């Protein structure tokens, strides 16, 4: 799964806020801002600061995009968990 912050930059543009004004107002550094631009991982603290600034929810500034094989991975994970549960049950009976 990946996260994109395109909604944040659309919001900045729509409200006429420059990137520098935004960084200064929110109190985030250049490195963190670069991570936002590159859709990289940031802290939940940063997400909270941005949401506080805009008085919005996270889904208004970011979008979660599942991996193309997300459903397949979920099924495989469920199968492995079922196997683990069966083995743990057997272990208890020994």
Describe the 3D structure.
With 94 residues, this protein is mainly alpha-helical. The chain has one domain (2-68): 434 Repressor (Amino-terminal Domain), CATH 1.10.260. 64% of the residues lie in helices and 6% in strands. The chain contains five helices and two strands; from the N terminus they run E-H-H-H-H-E-H. The chain has helices at 6-14, 19-26, 30-37, 44-54, 70-93, and strands at residues 2-4, 63-65. It has a two-stranded antiparallel ribbon. The longest helix has 24 residues, at 70-93. The chain is elongated and about 65 Å long. It starts with a strand and ends with a helix. The mean pLDDT is 92.
Which terms summarize this structure?
two-stranded antiparallel ribbon; 94 residues; 6% strand; elongated; mainly alpha; 434 Repressor (Amino-terminal Domain)
Which secondary structure elements does this structure contain, and how are they paired or packed?
Elements: E1 2-4, H1 6-14, H2 19-26, H3 30-37, H4 44-54, E2 63-65, H5 70-93
Antiparallel strand pairs: 1-2
Short description:
The protein has five helices and two strands; from the N terminus they run βααααβα.
Strand order of the largest sheet: 1-2
Low-pLDDT sequence parts: none
Global structural class: mainly alpha
- Which descriptor suits the 3D outline? elongated
Strand content: 5-15%
Look at the structure and give the mean pLDDT: 92
What is the count of distinct domains? 1
